[in-house]
Write a structure and sequence with these properties.
By secondary structure, the protein is an alpha/beta fold. The chain contains 17 helices and eleven strands. The protein has three domains: 196 residues, NADH-ubiquinone oxidoreductase 51kDa subunit (Rossmann fold, 3-Layer(aba) Sandwich); 84 residues, Ubiquitin-like (UB roll) (Roll); 88 residues, NADH-ubiquinone oxidoreductase 51kDa subunit, iron-sulphur binding domain (de novo design (two linked rop proteins)), CATH 1.20.1440. The strands form three sheets. It has a five-stranded mixed sheet with strand order 6-5-11-8-9. A four-stranded parallel sheet has the order 3-2-1-4, with helices on both faces. A two-stranded antiparallel sheet has the order 7-10. The chain binds flavin mononucleotide (FMN) and iron/sulfur cluster. Flavin mononucleotide (FMN) binds next to strand 4.
């Protein structure tokens, strides 16, 4: 089955397959790009199969400036959350020629409910590794670090096996186990970890200028890197046929929560509304009530009310999605009847525990925000407590050495707005538990 909404053109050399449900949503299907190729049941695509399907890349023979120009023409925006133009990062790193740069594939996917990077590594590791070679050649690096969590065992093991197949290549690859903490996926934390210190974010020069051991360091998300492999092979004009002008290229999203198959990863060839996506993947059967709300972009994303969410177009790029960021691509559906306030309280408590604890807003502000939300969700807050909660989110926003406090502030403020009716009930004493029905609740670590 290949749903027409998900179908599109395919690259020269792609042999689109007739994928089977439920795998269709997860991998392959006519028109898929990153996820084109053998069905998921076939396991990961070995190097020989990958090259037979897509053809050779011969990165060593490509002109670095020409590769950078192709990426600039593609308009690729980073898929790790910040939507930063990839070409600009490549130029910065390439221009720092005094020290040999390092390329890092950020495959740490610290968002517990996100699966897009893991699915890529588990099924198309050579596409990611090809893209890493393109990035390395484009910036003059010979060393590539694949930064991933060993705890995501299948993805980690598959990359290790795929790297074995490239042992004699011109690039030196290292697979590094990322520390198990949300902020360990932030780029300056990665640079710090690779320099021999803790995986803690730091302020100062961007890592593209001074990163791992002071060397210019290109940190890109695994999906971003996989796109580089396609751009270098098939050209920016073909690549831009997917997506839209603001954010060209296909994009991966992970469906979670009250959906038919939580954890399904979909490749969007053009912006789709949440409603279209849910129907296309069988997640919104006609008898099913509309979702109460949808959390878009990850745990530090934005809650959107159910009815408007279903018509919201999922797209990247400035001004897309009505200003809501697609972030790590998570689309998590909260069932009708579930409490968004209590659910957000759980997310906030988890996020507070995941900080590096080195800046005031995280040490003091985030636990206080989690306390405030828990008190509200259990019917113990007054209107004055609620005002204090709003003040706290405003106080942590934009502070600290990384974007973590702002991310939590954004999540909580969107919850207080989207669940305004529930907030009123809680102020009258109603007490709720976090959502069940499949919503991906994180497990809070005890200190
Ligand atoms: C707290 C925090 C956690 C992050 N975790 C991840 C992560 O798990 N994976 C990722 O690719 N980017 C993560 N990022 C974003 C990275 O700092 C960086 O912007 C990204 O890897 C760059 O890749 P891109 O330009 O391809 O998007 C995180 C950022 C913050 C502030
Ligand atoms: S803002 Fe928070 S997560 Fe970021 S570096 Fe400071 S303590 Fe760590």
């Amino acid at each position: 089955m290949s749903h027409p909404l998900l179908a599109g053109d395919h690259a020269p050399g792609h042999r689109p397959i007739a994928a089977r449900a439920p795998a269709a949503a997860q991998l392959g299907g006519a028109g898929a790009r990153l996820l084109a190729g053998p069905a998921p049941e076939a396991g990961w695509e070995r190097l020989a199969g990958h090259l037979a399907r897509l053809g050779p890349l011969d990165v060593g023979r490509r002109d670095p400036a020409q590769l950078r120009s192709m990426v600039a023409q593609s308009g690729l925006l980073g898929r790790g959350g910040g939507q930063f133009p990839t070409a600009a990062k490549l130029e910065t790193v390439a221009s720092r020629s005094r020290l040999r740069p390092v390329v890092v594939v950020n495959a740490s996917e610290g968002e517990p409910a996100s699966r897009k990077d893991s699915v890529l590594l588990e099924h198309r590791p050579h596409l990611v590794l090809d893209g890493a070679e393109v990035a390395a050649r484009a910036v003059g690096a010979t060393e590539v670090v694949v930064y991933a969590h060993r705890a995501r065992r299948r993805a980690f093991g598959t990359v290790a096996a795929a790297l074995e197949e490239r042992r004699n290549g011109p690039f030196r690859f290292r697979l590094v186990d990322a520390p198990p903490r949300y902020v360990a996926g932030e780029s300056s934390a990665i640079a710090s970890f690779l320099s021999g210190s803790g995986a803690l974010p730091r302020s100062g020069a961007p890592v593209a200028v001074s990163g791992a051991a002071g060397r210019p360091t290109l940190v890109n998300n695994a999906e971003t890197v996989a796109h580089l492999a396609l751009i270098a092979r098939f050209g920016p004009a073909w690549w831009r046929q997917a997506g839209d002008d603001r954010a060209p290229g296909s994009t991966l999203v992970t469906l979670a929560g009250d959906v038919a198959s939580p954890g399904t990863v979909i490749e969007l060839l053009r912006p789709l509304s949440v409603g279209e996506l849910l129907s296309a993947t069988g997640a919104a059967a006609p008898a099913r009530p509309a979702p109460r709300a949808v959390l878009i972009g990850g745990y530090e994303g934005t809650w959107v009310d159910g009815p408007p969410a279903t018509t919201l177009l999922l797209a990247r790029g400035a001004g897309a999605l009505g200003g809501v960021q697609l972030g790590c691509g998570l689309v998590a559906v909260l069932a009708e009847g579930a409490c968004g306030v209590a659910t957000t309280a759980r997310l906030a408590r988890w996020l507070a525990g995941e900080s590096a604890g080195q800046c005031g807003p995280c040490r003091i502000g985030l636990p206080a925000i989690a306390d405030g939300l828990e008190s509200l969700a259990t019917g113990r807050s007054t209107r004055s407590d609620l005002r204090h909660l709003w003040r706290l989110t405003a106080q942590v926003r934009g502070r600290g050495a990384c974007g973590h406090p702002s991310g939590v502030a954004g999540l909580v403020e969107s919850a207080l707005g989207t669940f305004a009716a529930e907030v009123e009930e809680h102020l009258r004493g109603a007490a709720c538990m976090p959502a069940t029905r499949g919503f991906p609740l994180p497990v809070v670590r005890r200190p």
